[in-house]
Amino acid sequence: MDQFDVVVIGGGPGGYVAAIRAAQLGFKVACIDEWKNAKGGPAPGGTCTNVGCIPSKALLQSSEHYEHALHHFGDHGITASGVKMDVAKMLVRKDAVVKQNNDGILYLFKKNKVTFFHGRGSFAGAAKEGVYEINVSEPANAQIAAKHVIIATGSNARALPGAAFDEKLILSNDGALRMGDVPKKLGVIGAGVIGLEMGSVWRRLGADVTVLEGLPTFLGAVDEQIAKEAAKLFKKQGLNISLGVKVGAIKPGKNDVTVEYTTADGKAETATFDKLIVSIGRVPNTVGLNAEAAGVKLDERGFIVVDEDCKTSQANVWAVGDVVRGPMLAHKAEEEGVAVAERIAGQHPHIDFNCVPWVIYTSPEIAWVGKTEQQLKAEGVAYKAGSFPFMANGRARALGNTDGMVKILADAKTDKVLGMHAVGPVVSELIAEGVMAMEFGASSEDIARICHAHPTLSEATKEAALAVDKRTLNF
Ligand code: FAD
Ligand code: NAI
């Protein structure tokens, strides 16, 4: 039986990054991942690479180009006639982007001398003299052993009761990313991150999109001012979002699917869609892992129980990413993977969850880090707020994309940055400055005094920091 120092089960962003970092630290490492590509071959990278972050961003980009060609080229004096979208080609491109990432991870495993096993990993039982035996199913068919095991088995889409995903009419993120045609009428249940991103893709391509959200507030975790602005802009784009809806029976027909629901004001409604995306959150994935046999505890919702260092209930078994508590984000999974590898090596890394950024890749994008205004109010923290609209930013005007704003929240006494919130063009890139400021314990004055290149969107961040002290220069 091959013996390793560290075996990682799951090759998504949590797992493959943990494996690489452990190998960099001098350990003999194996990573097991079961994801198969269309030909049955290995496709490491997990949800993120195969049916998540990467393919969704590829489709968001393609559909945005299409929308620009149709509706915004004219503003720049460009006439484009006969603009057409070839959905099949768009999907081929998306698949090629995914494959580049799968291949990139296989290359990185080779480069870092991580042994890769394609198959399902499961615990053979409890540790014997401090060593865990792991069975690997086909196609690898192997049994390996290790002192340390890192579980990084990710998550799956949550289905609505009585409405299993068939990926033809009722779609999870998987089906939502590979519709062969643009549906005329697309229903989306859940106005969360996937609902908004996927709803945007298919709306841009011509679908009439209706989003049914159970909660009465739109994007409740987002700063209220930013969420309000985003809701206004999405409405203007034609994304129909109904809040406070109670979804009832879902009845798939031959070629369409009917949803019964009650509106926020108690009216019973029925809507029929060509396709229905159900994006109501995700559940941890421990299928076939046999974690219980090794004595690894799961909580009542199926998450692997870990402490703040990602230690499970069993010595030398660790768990990271979507399968444990905390936000289900690729970069959070990666940070945990790196930290666990370093802890195994006796180091003492620390992750500040308050500094994990969030991004929603709609147009405009939404990004944030740290506390929202509503959280600070609820916690009774005295704060100052400064915001700056992209309308007053030279680069945004040149881009022709002036929707949205950047907002910075700082402690009223110390001026320490407590949060940054933005809606607008490419704010996914701007948010890194807020993360850096918070990690370094910077004040809003620190950001305001940093020289930002002109003309850049990042000047909106500097101006928002100036606005905290009520001294914007350009607004
Ligand atoms: P996963 O990526 O789910 O990887 C787990 C891997 O383990 C999978 O390959 C699985 O096949 C494998 N596995 C499971 N069990 C076993 C086993 N027993 N043996 C062997 N292999 C096993 N996050 C962002 O930060 N930014 C985004 O833009 C973003 N976009 C997203 C878009 C969509 C549509 C979705 C669905 C998610 C998105 N996410 C995004 C979330 C992100 O994909 C996840 O947070 C991230 O993939 C979690 O990483 P992970 O390593 O924990 O798990
Ligand atoms: P989500 O948690 O973002 O949103 C789910 C939404 O569905 C919520 O607004 C919730 O109130 C609503 N909902 C739940 N049950 C409902 C019901 N029965 N009827 C109507 N509405 C209901 O989950 P989502 O969009 O499925 O995404 C899962 C996770 O994947 C995200 O939380 C995020 O962690 C990750 N992700 C991250 C992305 C990014 O970083 N850009 C992109 C896509 C996903």
List keywords for this structure.
single chain, 475 residues, alpha/beta, FAD/NAD(P)-binding domain, Enolase-like, domain 1, 3 domains, 7-stranded mixed beta sheet, 5-stranded parallel beta sheet, 13 helices, 32% helix, binds flavin-adenine dinucleotide, binds 1,4-dihydronicotinamide adenine dinucleotide
Number of strands: 22
**Could you please say which CATH topology of the largest domain applies here?**
FAD/NAD(P)-binding domain
> What helical percentage do the residues reach?
25-40%
| Proper CATH architecture of the largest domain | 3-Layer(bba) Sandwich
Low-confidence segments, ≥5 residues, pLDDT <50?
A: none
End-to-end distance: 68 Å
- Outline the biggest β-sheet: 7 strands, mixed
Beta-strand portion reads 15-25%
**Number of helices in the DSSP assignment:** 13
